[in-house]
Design a protein that fits this description.
The protein is an alpha/beta fold and 67 residues long. Helices cover 34% and strands 15% of the residues. The chain is built from 3 helices and 3 strands, in the order αβαβαβ. It has helices spanning 5-13, 25-30, 44-51; strands at 18-21, 37-38, 59-62. The chain has a 3-stranded parallel sheet with strand order 2-1-3, with no helix packed on it.
Length: 67
């Protein structure tokens, strides 16, 4: 599926989609997609159930290269 930025922002702002940033917290603090949550990859296994309780809700996970 391909959508434009306005539709993406609408769906995330209204709760239609959950956007998860899996970068370390310091990278998230430097900048992230509006309405996204931070769940660092290193914490994914321990915290995913608590932060992502509704598995029926579409989840978008994003990351980038970091050092």
């Amino acid at each position: 599926m391909e959508i434009d930025l306005a539709e993406f922002l609408r769906r995330t702002a209204t709760g239609g989609w959950l956007v998860v940033n899996v970068l370390p917290a310091v990278a998230y603090d430097e900048g992230h997609i509006p309405n996204s949550i931070n769940l660092p990859f290193s914490d994914l296994q321990q915290r995913a159930r608590a932060l992502l309780p509704d598995l029926a809700r579409p989840i978008i996970i994003y990351c980038a290269a970091f050092t």
